[in-house]
Design brief:
elongated, binds copper (II) ion, 345 residues, five-stranded mixed beta sheet, 2 domains, Cytochrome Bc1 Complex, Chain D, domain 2, Immunoglobulin-like, 36% helix, alpha+beta
């Protein structure tokens, strides 16, 4: 890092996402404020040391009994400055951690010591990530082993990747090129080798790349798994099976046998596959076998993609959005789109 810094005189990484500019402005504002206050305090301290130095032996200084105006000034101004920093930082944080519902969704799995990515129409890659320029991309991430963190400096994006949990992040790349991916959470011996590249392409190039070696989509793979794991023998579409009907269920609220409710989102589906006894749906017996150790994270994501595809038409919205169901806005037709490919499989 330091060598890089010395030889290229690159103070900050290239700005290649919509977040980059504001994150940098914020960072520069913090630098400037730090410089202004550090220099100001050091200079004032120097002046005062000189001005109020002891001039003769036995000198007795004037006694000062307090200065209300001064006290209020140096309390209120720093308070406003720090609240301003907080508000600005919180705004950026909120934007970064609230993925838009119409984003291109890519699944990322971290594993000692590689990054796997799975695109909506089936393309998979390891230690690379191909994305189109000018399009919002949402990453849904999990880890197969230990804590990792997905860090793309040029996008100013960094998010923890946690075993047993889905984390999300999103960004919109602003210029084609290749950029670094780092793991930013120490995860073992080869942590420093857990690196890769993001390739930002023009939409046409991205489409060409996608169709290069087309593979099965997550929805199609999930549908096959649903049959091969015999999920379909209990979760009947008619709703008369030993397990609840999964059609039209994604992102809906389900009642549990302990009287509480749960939103059927990615996290709940994952938990119910791995540990079905944790939250059993009302009126059903806890008879589902445990799939912990039977399915990989990638397969769970495929099953979720399938369940999402048979869900309500507007289930394209992410669970984080908690959109009111009845909002006949222009955004709705677009939101329903990601579900459509299921029909063609
Ligand atoms: Cu790692």
């Amino acid at each position: 890092m330091s060598l890089f810094f010395l030889f290229q005189f690159e103070l900050i990484p290239e700005q290649a996402s919509k977040f980059a500019m504001e994150v940098d402005l914020f960072y520069i504002a913090l630098w400037l404020m730090t410089i202004v206050f550090s220099v100001g305090i050091a200079v004032a301290a120097g002046i005062f040391m000189f001005k109020y130095r002891r001039k003769s032996a036995g000198e007795i200084p004037d006694q000062i009994e307090g200065a209300m105006t001064l006290e209020l000034t140096w309390t209120i101004i720093p308070l406003l400055i720090s609240l301003g920093i907080f508000a600005w930082g919180a705004k950026i944080y909120y934007q970064m951690y609230t993925p838009p519902s119409e984003a291109l969704e890519i699944f990322v799995t971290g594993k000692q010591w590689m990054w796997r990515a799975q695109h909506p129409d089936g393309q998979r890659e390891i230690n690379t990530l191909h994305i189109p320029v000018g399009r919002r991309v949402k990453l849904t991430m999990t880890s197969e082993d230990v804590l990792h963190a997905y860090f793309i400096p040029a996008f100013r994006t960094k998010a923890d990747v946690v075993p047993g949990r889905y984390t999300t992040t999103w960004f919109e790349a602003t210029k084609p090129g290749t950029y670094h991916i780092f793991c930013a959470e120490y995860c073992g011996t080869q942590h420093s080798g857990m690196i890769g590249t993001v390739t930002v392409q023009d939409p046409a190039d991205y489409q060409a790349w996608l169709s290069g070696t087309s593979k099965e989509s997550p929805v199609a793979a999930g549908q096959k798994l649903f049959a091969s794991l015999a999920c379909n023998t209990c979760h009947l579409e008619s709703g008369t099976g030993r397990g609840p009907k999964l059609h039209e269920l994604y992102n809906q609220t389900a009642k549990l046998n302990n009287g509480t409710t749960v939103t059927v989102d990615d996290a709940y589906i994952r938990e119910s596959i791995l540990n079905p006894m944790a939250k059993v749906v009302e009126k059903y017996d806890p008879v589902m076998p445990v799939f912990q150790g039977q399915v990989s994270e990638e397969q769970i994501q495929q099953l979720i993609a399938y369940i999402k595809s048979i869900g309500p038409k507007d289930a394209g919205a992410t669970q984080a959005q908690a959109k009111p169901a009845a909002s006949p806005t222009a955004a709705n037709p677009a939101a329903a789109k990601p579900v459509a490919p299921a029909k063609t499989q």
